[in-house]
Design brief:
globular; 10 helices; single chain; about 10% strand; about 30% helix
């Protein structure tokens, strides 16, 4: 794993604690010292995605680091990078052109402190990027691997690990740092539109398969973001659905697979889901993100929202959701 990427994950996991201002460089100094050298604006930028470069009807162009204004501001969380429908003048999918064309987004870079930008790209059945890049000839092909449900049907963790190794090699070769996957929600309803990329109705199978995939991908020195955490088992109204679930069912069914992956593979990141769980948005749920994920399972990475997920940025940070993937 790239040492600077390890340090950047540590920065995001460490939070936005304020110390005295001192000069430092990521990778050469302790993370706490790097954080102490950051300005308030830099700390805020580090926990927010870089935004989107798109044209909006009547609102001009949205660029990285620029918030949408006026009537273009969404009243409710919008769909994820993978699911966002085409919008007039642009689309959320593939908005990153600066580093890897067709990737889903980037994190905020602070060059003066040696903090790089990380590139995240969608999956789940292989790397999702643009086949062409501005100013370059040739085609950037990515392998279309079997979907999660098919892989899980083999019950072969060694095979899935091999697929992960091959996928991770492509992620590395194309300059992406983190793939937004694997998806591993439970097949709760056969009508769920994302079932094809999830593994199983059984949390043990889902957990073991996802752990094999994560270990395979991350053996290449690139990261994964297991999703959608948690209880996001319906596509319809998933931005606003309130999942009512008992603690026993939550622990034994909907969280079990995620726990297996964290303890067997330590994914670099976890992506929180859009939905509410018993009345609280998942990215704002302290019990879900800090008590269970970090304290009970020992998760060491950072948690990001799904694209535009959550409503209250302060509540998300307080819950332990360190990166809000939305417009700045």
């Amino acid at each position: 794993m790239n040492n600077k990427i390890i340090a950047l994950i540590a920065l995001l996991s460490f939070g936005v604690i304020s110390f005295s201002q001192t000069a430092s460089q990521l990778g050469k100094e302790p993370v706490a010292k790097v954080i102490s050298a950051m300005t308030l604006e830099e700390k805020a930028g580090l926990v927010v995605g870089m935004g989107m470069r798109m044209n909006f009807p009547g609102g001009g162009q949205g660029a990285p680091g620029q918030a949408r204004q006026g009537n273009n501001t969404p009243a409710t969380p919008a769909p994820s990078a993978q699911d966002q429908p085409a919008m007039p003048g642009g689309t959320v999918v593939g908005q990153t052109q600066d580093l890897v064309a067709g990737a889903a987004g980037t994190t905020f870079a602070i060059p003066r402190l040696g903090i790089p930008s990380m590139v995240v790209a969608d999956g789940p059945a292989g790397l999702r990027i643009s086949p062409t890049r501005p100013g370059q000839e040739g085609t950037f092909y990515a392998t279309a691997f079997p979907v999660g449900t098919l892989l899980a049907s083999t019950w072969d963790v060694d095979l899935v690990n091999s697929v992960g190794k091959a996928m991770g090699n492509e992620i590395l070769e194309y300059g992406v740092d983190v793939i937004l996957g694997p998806g591993m929600n439970i097949h709760r309803n056969p009508l769920c539109g994302r079932n094809f990329e999830y593994y199983s109705e059984d949390p043990l199978i889902a957990g073991r398969m996802a752990a094999a995939m994560v270990n395979g991908i991350q053996s290449n020195g690139v990261g994964t973001s297991i999703k959608h955490y948690a209880a996001n088992n319906a596509e319809t109204n998933r931005n606003s659905v309130n999942t009512i679930v008992s603690q026993r069912a939550l622990r034994e069914i909907y969280l079990k697979g995620f726990g297996i992956v964290v303890q067997e593979a330590q994914p670099w990141t976890v992506m929180s889901s859009y939905n509410l769980i018993n009345g609280t948005y998942a990215p704002e749920n302290y019990d879900l993100i800090t008590k269970v994920l970090r304290n009970d399972w020992g998760f060491k990475g950072y948690v990001m929202t799904d694209w535009f997920g959550g409503r209250d940025p302060a509540a998300m940070v307080a819950a332990g959701n360190k990166e809000n993937c939305s417009f700045r």
